[in-house]
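A note on notation is needed here, since sequence and fold are reported together in a single record. The reader may check this reading against the record printed directly beneath this paragraph.
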Amino acid sequence: MDDPGRRLLHALELMEMGLAMQRQNLRRRHPEWSEAEVDGAMRRWVSREDEPLPWPLRYRPR
């Protein structure tokens, strides 16, 4: 049986890997950017400031 704590840990590890992949993608696409510019792009990407959230938000159970 899956322990909820293990599932959460796995989800957080996957999220961390996804963030690292996105950061590397930004660096590859924009080699001229400083680390501060990459950080800013990451913050915008994570917060999705550039795109509106779909409304209404719906919970979709598995």
Summary: The first helix runs from residue 4 to 29. Residues 48 and 54 are 11 Å apart (CA to CA). The mean pLDDT is 85. The two ends are 17 Å apart (CA to CA).
